[in-house]
Automatic annotation (TrEMBL):
InterPro entries attached to this UniProt entry: LMW_PTPase, Ptyr_pPase, Ptyr_pPase_sf, Tyr_phospatase_low_mol_wt
Gene3D superfamilies the record matches: 3.40.50.2300
Pfam families: LMWPc (PF01451)
Signal peptide stretch: none
CDD domains, A to Z: LMWPAP
Domain Phosphotyrosine protein phosphatase I: 1-133
Entry keyword set: Hydrolase, Protein phosphatase
UniProt GO MF annotations: protein tyrosine phosphatase activity
Protein family per UniProt: Belongs to the low molecular weight phosphotyrosine protein phosphatase family.
Protein's UniProt name: Putative phosphatase
């Protein structure tokens, strides 16, 4: 199985999701990207702190989502309803494989610019959503 996580900048939520799923399910091929990412940008410092605190690999470079990414993935999970709409509009042929990461269809808020506690909350929200979907 090939899973793609998508957020806005690919420096906070989707890299956290990617690393969480890689840790929980090493048998799944996982990548992440952003709708407005600047390719090559590093993971945010607070995301890096959280990943290190949880014992996960924090090496990540942002990339903008492309048609190649969409074609590669069997399943695509986004963080918000706005991402869902945007990706389905950008890649209409892939609409059936684009879903919200949360089963209850709530958004995962962007912690960018927030406190380390907000990043920790985001980590646990993502871990819960990913565990529900993949375990």
């Amino acid at each position: 199985m090939k899973v793609l996580f998508v957020c806005t900048g690919n420096t906070c939520r989707s890299p956290l999701a990617e690393k969480i799923l890689q840790d929980l399910r090493p048998d799944i091929d996982v990548r992440s990207a952003g709708t407005r990412a600047i390719t090559g940008e590093r993971v945010s410092e607070k995301s890096k702190q959280i990943l290190l605190q949880m014992g996960l690999d924090s090496d990540h470079q942002a990339k903008k989502v492309t048609q190649t990414d969409i074609d590669w993935a069997n399943e695509i999970y986004v963080m918000t309803k706005a991402h869902l709409i945007e990706l389905k509009n950008l890649f209409p042929k892939a609409s059936n494989k684009i879903k919200l990461v949360t089963m209850d269809e709530t958004d995962i808020p962007d912690p960018y610019g927030g406190s380390i506690e907000q990043y920790e909350i985001t980590y646990y929200e993502l871990k819960s959503a990913i565990s529900e979907r993949f375990l």
